[in-house]
Amino acid sequence: MEYTQLGRSGLKVSRLVLGTMNFGPQTDEADSHAIMDSALAAGVNYFDTANVYGWGANKGRTEEIIGSWFAQGGGRRDKVVLATKVYGNMAAEDADWPNYDRLSALNIRRAVEASLKRLGTDYIDIYQFHHVDRNTPWEEIWQAIDVLVQQGKILYAGSSNFAGWHIAQANEAAARRGSLGLVSEQCLYNLAKREAEMEVIPSAQHYGLGVIPWSPLNGGLLGGALRKQREGGGARSTGGRSADALKSPQQRDQVQAYEDLCDKHGVDPGDVGLAWLLTRPGVTGPIVGPRVQAQLDSALRAVELKLSQEFLDSLDEIFPGPGPSPESFAW
User: Fold this and answer.
1) Is residue 223 classed exposed, middle or buried when 0-12, 13-18 and 19+ CB atoms within 10 A define those classes?
2) Distances from the Cα of 249 to the Cαs of 220, 246, 256, 301, in angstroms?
3) Residue from 53, 189, 207, 258 carrying the catalytic annotation
4) Residue ranges of E strands in 167-286
5) What are the helix (H) ranges across the chain?
6) Is 167 helix (H, G, I), strand (E, B) or coil?
7) Closest CA to 63 of 104, 122, 114, 18
């Protein structure tokens, strides 16, 4: 496994991030534990989750599964860089009650205590804002975060789904307080969705944030979706974002050209999608969210895959980026 610094921080993390969103809803506890064991054995030390994972009546379940894995001992907690998130509503399903979501100081305090309990740990390495809160001032947010850092309950703060100007706004507010500010940004970024290159990634690089792409295969679209469709891979193999994209003749042609290019070079499309992200400026590592062990094994292969400049140029021809901002939409 390769490691790198997380943005400008002193924290060293693996170039693959284990996403746990499927743990609970799609993958039972025993299989989730086995996947985490395999990831750690392979050198993956960066585990990502969120307080709402488990979803609906089961929100919080994913953190509980991670907590029961930590409880098995063997130095698991000490080896893992643990990231979780705050923002989503954690009130009981039958309770329509305020202050159980977003980024108020009250909810941050309430949410971190609940996450620590579910995770069975006394600290969180990276506490991430799952979305921007337009109604809470940054002075309030950073005051709450600074208290948690002083208490030793969290070490770093990160963001997810922020625009470039939100990153600037957050870190300028932190700088005025003498606080470290954000050290990471999770954003939608993959070969088929490159809008983050316009402002989010340049902003993250400017302020020293590590970029953590989520949905690196665009909901399965870049994982051999057309091949699986032809082979009768079932509804799940071309569901969600993948199925919607394949309804477009233009995107279907792009995906076909992509899969043909991968076939020409004898490489798996899913491996290429992850390996491409590892070549991108500012990217720390993509989040991979396996439901089964085979999906983790495939992701681990991608770290070893080196793409030639010729291959990278061909990928740019199939999936051109948006270009820099403002030149992409102005002179």
Assistant:
1) buried
2) 17, 7, 10, 31
3) 53
4) 182-188, 210-214
5) 29-41, 61-70, 76-79, 105-119, 138-151, 164-177, 200-207, 225-230, 240-246, 249-265, 269-277, 293-304, 309-318
6) helix
7) 114
Per-residue pLDDT tens over the stretch 151-182? 999 999 999 999 999 999 999 999 999 999 99
C-alpha dihedral sign at 123, 124, 130, 132: positive
Task: Please tell me the distance from the alpha carbon of residue 77 to that of residue 70, in angstroms, as a whole number.
Answer: 6
Has residue 319 got a pLDDT over 70? yes
For the chain, how big is the Rg over CA atoms in Å?
Answer: 20
Residue type, 291: R
Q: How many CB atoms lie within 10 A of CB 84?
A: 29
Handedness of CA 41, 42, 46, 49 (dihedral sign): negative
Note the pLDDT tens digit of each residue in 66-86.
Answer: 999 999 999 999 999 999 999
* Displacement of CA 4 from its chain's centroid (Å): 16
Amino acid 166 reads: H
Would residue 100 show up in a list of annotated catalytic residues for this protein?
A: no
User: Would strands 12-14 and 124-129 be described as parallel, antiparallel, or unpaired?
Assistant: unpaired
